[in-house]
Amino acid sequence: MRSVQLGTHAHNALLGVTSAGDGRCVSTVAKDGVVTYDVEEEKRERTLALDRGRKFACAVACGSNGRYYACLEKEQESDSSYLCAWETEQSANAATVGEASKECVTTLDLGRSGRVRELVAVDGGALVVTTTGEVQLFGMSAEHIDKARTSGELGSRRVETASVLPESVGALVVTTDGNFQGRKIATFLARAQTVTLAWELDIEHPDGAAKARVASAASDGETFMVLWDDGVWALHDASDGSLKHKLRLDGLDVHCDEATSGKRSKKSEDTSPLASAASLCLSQDYYAVVANSKEENTVVVAVFDSRYGAVHLAEDVSRGLEHKVGRTSGVSLAATSGNLIVGLSDQVVSVQFDLPELSLASLVGSLSIHSQPEASAAAIRVLGAETASTALVPPQHAAVTPGWKLEELKLDGQGVVSLSNVWDDDDAQTREKKVRSTAEALASGSKKAGSSLQTLMKSLPIPQILIESAISGGLNHRVWDSVTLLLAGGHIRGSSTARQLVTALLEEDMLDEVKDFLVYAKDVSAEDIVAILHSAMMRDEDDPGLKKRASANKKLAEKVLDEAEACASDEKFNGEAKQKLFARAQLLVSAYDSFAPWAQQLHPLIARPLDPTMGMLVLRDLSKQDAVSLLQYLLVWANFYASSGGYFARINTLVEPGIPSAHAVVTWTSALLDAQFTTFCLSDDVAEPVRALRESSSQMLDMMRSLAALGGAFRHVGENSPLPEQHGVQSTTYTVESVAW
């Protein structure tokens, strides 16, 4: 961020700032002249004084060709106004605006009640917007060419705000009647030496606030934004005026000046307490807004997008300035070379910005106030913390499903299925009310809410508000029926959405629920893994909860074993089906017979994948006793897979929820050895388990080495590639036994 001090002559008198057209210079307009600055060099380049006895009717406009336009009027406002034009070279050789523009001056015909409201540079000339809603087109020599006006009688409406359209093709004008009612927004395009009214739409405050006024407006051609003086930012579709996005900028209170005066309007209870605002369309995707705060000592710049309505940039430009922001008579905004140029009463501020590509990811990052602090700062600064939090809550919680039946579907004349009116808005609202009432009941700890939750669980996905409310009710009121229901169905998917839940379940001795969490969760935090690991190792062998879980494991193992024995002599089962049953029986029987009840509680935890970083966080702080116990636990599994013989391949590919695979055992063993390497090296009593672990690993490696030789062939066949005839392998002899690449 850079700033340039204007000097005392411009204090409290800045009318506007405009890009000078060369990509690096900006021009400011004060009551007594035009000053051009080099933004990159941070220095003043040229100063052009205003003629004595004259004043600017509005800010100077500068076109892309480096030509300046200015509307001047007498200080006593008794004489007619006129438009003048000049080029950069002329201002360099002149002392005053009148001298630089003496050959290009035209008197403005504004009518009896009209005055200049805004001046906009367009391709090949300039547009003068009057306070009565008339738009006049002038050429490069300030000659009058054409004019157009908004609908209604001339003089019966007043312009509330006006701004330039992108690519300098015209102007956007907001008009209202004398009572600030019946607002219209219109675009005027300057083409082929004519100015035409392209479109005009009626607009009103999104919330129906009758006393709100328009502080600023801008358009990209396809959409237009309106910033109301009560802090509501609304984005509309330019084709029909429909509302696309609405944000309440609680972090930016704004206030519009009187349309017919450059003076600050008096504050009252009916107006916003903030000074002023300005807006600008940066591209077809982004809008910039600048507003000064109610304390009148900060100025915040914000950038919104037209696709998602998110906040992508928010910066308090008053921070870090050499000179504090004082009482301003308004703020102005321009853009040049990747910078936003903010004009204040006594200084010009250049804000560098780098906007992201519009995407759903950028939307989430810009509105999130939890995961990304840098991105969230923009949303909090502009929306306020409370509003930013509300923006994350989806407006619709209920899952709405279509109500059609297949037998009722009919084809239209073009062979397209006509679904008629299958979406029932009343039904959707009813479901939404049901979801909200159930969520409130769950959060309050009501035991009757479980039946309502079961009904709503028939529609997927489960609304997140129900999950959060059930967890909240369980943690606060120790009512766990709904949590058990959600865990068993796999709807609580990780530690990030269920903070403190695992700790509470362990305290309540709810081992079945902990297992369901480990089986279905997508993410489990290091804190939860440590808590589960320590809880299992600290339990007493006679713990009733452990005996209950061990009894359930025994029944499951016996059931699978009986099924395997029954199919051994049953001819209905083929060889592959029998192998699968035998492998599963061997796996579950070992999971019960080979482990003590406390160790059985580790099965679902060890069955989860473990990356090296997480493994170091979880395992490095284990005590020697716990580390040795975990090593012996892993050794039992390693011996099982090493001794599985011909069933190793089948068991290793068998997916059994909550039972560690060979890959999981190897992963956890490697992580444990890395995290506790020093402890194991210095402990003589660990040497024997480590040696046994090495032998088991060698046996598994020998079995896998023969299978690994077929990896290329398996991939070749799996990708449906042609047979390698050119390598001496004939189609008739192409078998698994004879091919090893």
Descriptive keywords:
741 residues; alpha+beta; five-stranded antiparallel beta sheet; 23 helices; disordered C terminus
Which secondary-structure class do the elements indicate? Answer: alpha+beta
Overall number of strands: 31
- β-sheet strand percentage: 15-25%
Biggest sheet, open or closed, and with what strands and sense?
Answer: 5 strands, antiparallel
What value does the average pLDDT take?
Answer: 78
**Tally of DSSP helical segments:** 23
Low-confidence stretches: 7-12, 255-271, 369-375, 737-741
The span between the termini is 62 Å
- The helix content is 25-40%
Radius of gyration from the alpha-carbon trace, in angstroms: 37 Å
Q: How would you describe the shape?
A: elongated
Spell out the blueprint of helices and strands.
Layout lengths: L1 E4 L10 E4 L5 E6 L2 E6 L4 E7 L4 E3 L4 E2 L4 E8 L7 E6 H5 L4 H4 L4 E3 L8 E7 L2 E6 L3 E6 L4 E6 L8 E7 L5 E7 L6 E9 L2 E10 L10 E6 L3 E6 L3 E6 L5 E6 L28 E5 L4 E7 L6 E7 L5 E6 L15 E5 L2 E5 L3 E6 L7 H8 L5 H11 L1 H7 L18 E2 L5 E2 L6 H19 L5 H8 L7 H14 L3 H8 L12 H7 L3 H10 L5 H13 L5 H25 L6 H19 L3 H4 L2 H4 L5 H8 L4 H19 L5 H6 L8 H14 L1 H5 L5 H22 L2 H8 L23
Antiparallel strand pairs: 1-29, 2-3, 3-4, 4-5, 6-8, 7-8, 8-9, 9-10, 11-12, 12-13, 13-14, 15-16, 16-17, 17-18, 19-20, 20-21, 21-22, 23-24, 24-25, 25-26, 27-28, 28-29, 30-31
